[in-house]
Amino acid sequence: MSLMLKLLAITLLLSSSAEASNVDKKIESFLKKTYSKNGNIESINVKVADGIPIKGQRNWLAYVVGLDAILKKDKRKVVQKMVWFSDGNLITKEIFDLNSGININDIVTFDFKDEYYKKENLIYGNENAKHKVVIFSDPLCPFCRAFVPKAINEMRKEPNKFAIYYYHLPLSSLHPAAVELVKAAIALELKGKKDVVLNLYKVKVNPNEKSVEKILEAFNKVMNSKIRMYDLLTKEVTKQIKHDLQVADALMVQGTPTMFFDGKRDKTKNKYKEAK
Length: 276
Fold this sequence. Notes:
globular; 23% strand; 2 domains; 7 helices; Glutaredoxin; 5-stranded mixed beta sheet; alpha+beta
C-alpha cells in the first residue's frame, strides 16, 4: 500500500471513530436530560457501552446504554442496562421492520466471548469438545426444572461433542429462595462434589421461602451433604456467583433458561439437537 493510501485509510478510520464518539455523546446527553426529568431520580449517569450494527439497517445501530442512578426516596442506587436505537439524528427504544413485522429488539444479540468460558463453569464434557453450550438458569424456574436437566443429560453422553458451561442466574424477584439455593450449590461444588447442578433441580422448596435454614435442609436432604449457613458466606462462593451474574449482565441475559451455542444465542434452545 502506498503512503498516500495508508494516510487516507488512517484519516477515514479516525473520522469514523470521531463520528461514533460524537453520536455516543449525543445519546448520553439526550438520555441524561430525559431521565433527569423524572422526579424520583436524584442523580443519574448515562454511558454508552457499545454500538452494534443491525442486519439490514445500514444507518442504524443498537446502542447498549448503562444507567447508574440514585433514587430520591431512599437514596437507593439503581444500575441498569438497556438498548436504544439511533442513526445519529433520531433515537428510539423500539424499531419494527414494516415488511416482516419483526421487532428489531428481538434480533439484537450479544456473542458469548471466549473470556467468559471459565473452567469453574464447565460442568460436563471436554473443554476442547466440538461444540460449546452455555446455559443460564434458575433452579426454581418452572421451565428450567422441566427443560434443563433433560438437555444436560442428553448432552453429557457425548463429552467430546459437547462442553457444557453452566451459569447460575437466580431470579431473586421471582424466586427469592433460589439465591441461597445457588450459593449452597456453589459451596458444595467447591468441596469437590459432582453432579451438583443436575441434582439441584430435584430440591423441593417454596420459591418464596425466606428461611435459609429450611432452604439448606431441603438442599442437604437431596445432596446428602452438610452445607451450613457459614459455607454460603465464603469469598469463593461470593466470587463465583458474582462472576456468573456479571456475565449475564454483560450479555443482557434477563430470563431463564437462556442458552448459547458456539458463542451465539440460541433462542430455539434446540441447536444442540441438530449438532453433528
